[in-house]
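Running log. JK asked me to keep both predictions on one page so they can be read side by side. First protein, sequence followed by its tokens:
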Amino acid sequence: MVSAATPTSSGCSSPSRPRPDQTTNGLPALAPPMSVPGAPQGGGESMSQLDEVASTNRRFWENEVSQGSGYTRPWLELDPALVRAFAAGDVDVLPEPYTYIYPQWLFHDVAQATAAGRPKDVLLLATGGGQQSAVFGLLGANVTVYDLAEGQLAGDRLVAKHFGFPVRTIQGDMRDISVLADESFDVVYQEVSLGYVPDLLPVYRGVSRVLRPGGLYRVAHCEPVGMCVDEASWDGKGYRISEPFYRGRVRGGSDSSMEFRHLLSDAFNGLIESGLVIRGVYEDPRHLIPTTAAPGTYAHLLTWGQIYYSIVAAKPAGGCA
């Protein structure tokens, strides 16, 4: 847990590894591999060494891809005009299944940078599947996707080909992004994937390193209490808390995933320890969308209580916080 970890660095970029000026096909350059404290070695394009957590969760997500689960379906039907309207502020909340794309102002900034001829370099961290990459690609960003599951990355390549924008995909563990160069991204965008690692700090420190000064990290989390509630707990009146709040590992096994609960102190203090500054906190807007989902289903649970939230943190323009 973050609260129990001992920081080994400020999260600021190492002065011995300067920001690269060279890019490849408009995308940030890759860096020579380096070690990230607390992370399994062999990340980035090398998948030769994975610990039990990563190997179990990779199997889980490859299986999810094979079954066509919701978060693995590329958004081939996404309307480019809808994306542009959302970025322009003409649409406050995107309809399902795109509702968890937020906050709106971040996408406005990306679109404005493209219009000014300075497209943002965006890293989608542990956020493969051809969904978020479709949004950023349609807004003209230079998109890199870094994900543990090859099947998820295939979805990003498919959606990029479908809409006609370039994308770079890299398979690796989010705890070791050492293949990516220092200060090479303007935005790092991460969906609710941190529950698949036991410690947030290796991820946060890696993000701080690859962000440019002034760059933004948008990261989604599951509310800790949200992992204590299951859709099957519906009793006709509401959902009940079915397990202790202060529990670390949630579930795991060779035929499932390994997930971990991170407290609010983990989520926020880890960002601060990594040299980032909190810019804003945003609740998932799915409760704003009318639903016909039946009680006792996950779709209904998402509208019943606040399960997810996002933090936007910035790397100080002067470097270290």
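And the second, directly underneath as requested:
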Amino acid sequence: MPSMPPGGPVATYPSYAEAQKAVDYLSDNKFPVQYVSIVGTDLKLVERVTGRLTYGRVALAAAVSGAYIGLFVGVLFAFLEQRDFAATLTSTIAIGAGFGMIFGLVSYAMTGGRRDFTSTSQMVAAQYAVWCTPEYAGQAQQMLAGMTDAVAAGLRQAHQGGEPAGGDRAAAGAQHPGGRYPAGQQGGPWGAGPSSGSQPGTGGQAGTGGQEGAGGQAGTGGWPGSGMPGSGRPGPGRPQGAAHPGTGGQPQWQGQQPPPRPQSPPEPAQSPPEPAPAAVSGPTYSEMIARKKAEQARREAEGQSSREQEEGER
């Protein structure tokens, strides 16, 4: 007599396909699946109506069924009696279709119209549980939990695949928040410019501790020291020569000229424009057809005139 399998549920799924996938996962990971069962709970019988039933449909379906039976019988007779194969098959198929149609119509008439439709029946469960025996229940539960975690990780990775990494976004935001430089500074190889209220310094003293904009304080008139590297980085030390205030807010350098400003790279030469493709010349399809018709008419006229000339000579 049928009975429930031993053990208890280790996982529950809303569809049979998911429960089958879980058991297949256990089998792929070398789990003894002979101790596993799929149990459907809250069973329901579902009958799906496929169409209306009439005498015509009954006769056609019964004739097709009888023809299949006649085909099978005809093949047996043709091989056993060694007669005309085509004639034997034709006769047996016709006889089978006729008897099948008669039998189907009689059976349908006996129902008295109480079931004038066709349907299919199926047993459906509300949920499906994967059961396992007690000695392997813990191992099966752990493996199915790992399967769930792997599926969730794959979904998260697919969801985040098109976004930049969090570390890159944080580094970009920390370097230049909002894509702008701090007030009073400008990017470029000359570093950060002085603020409007800055006092003139003694010329090119090194900055401390990597403070932004402190690498090489500006001399009198706002020129940076020669030891100043890129924007917001400390200079390596004192510059060569000292800057003294001069007239017009420009510094005067003793011992050497101030460092030259970097020049922007030359713009690449523009390539010459490509020549326009030459227009394709020649007769069109319609012109060719017209020429062909004119040539044919001319030949017919010449032939007609030559025939008339020959008849006149005769």
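Observation for JK regarding the second prediction: The mean pLDDT is 71.
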